[in-house]
Amino acid sequence: xxxxxxxxxxxxxxxxxxxxxxxxxxxxxxxxxxxxxxxxxxxxxxxxxxxxxxxxxxxxxxxxxxxxxxxxxxxxxxxxxxxxxxxxxxxxxxxxxxxxxxxxxxxxxxxxxxxxxxxxxxxxxxxxxxxxxxxxxxxxxxxxxxxxxxxxxxxxxxxxxxxxxxxxxxxxxxxxxxxxxxxxxxxxxxxxxxxxxxxxxxxxxxxxx
Length: 209
Hints:
Layout: E1 14-19, E2 34-38, H1 49-60, E3 65-69, E4 73-75, E5 78-81, H2 87-99, E6 119-122, H3 130-141, E7 147-151, E8 153-159, E9 164-171, H4 194-208
Antiparallel strand pairs: 1-2, 1-8, 3-7, 4-5, 5-6, 8-9
């Protein structure tokens, strides 16, 4: 996600991503291990409480799932791990696009469907060096494949055009907790018994005497 990749980040851009901390040690790029569900999403100025509520409901309707990363693949200049299965990630992207069709993956640079789901490992090598560099990186990392991760949430992130910051985390398969009421509920009051009333009257009379 940078101007060097051909789709410049714009201040206020947002994206929806899946974090894969189990693969953080594999990544040689300056960002945590993740799969992009939809980039760019809506501009930050359009992320209203109503949009948050819709996102919460959309993701709550999807069950958590497992992904396995067992092989290396490449785009020109990029080494990545494809998730298996891809269908749960694609289903999330599809449901978001059906609701917000104006959010076109990668601004349409790679066609209306964007790129296949992927976990980028490295993307900073030039055309003359990336093949040899990524051959070496594959040899280094292959002994510790496969990696399996449980996906239970999707994260909204936002950029100022240079740095991406974490935003809201939406849980899969679980509705957000109901907010606490602003006014505590009034406890029901039980009527005093005749004996309690007589004792209270006696105490009050003794205090006045």
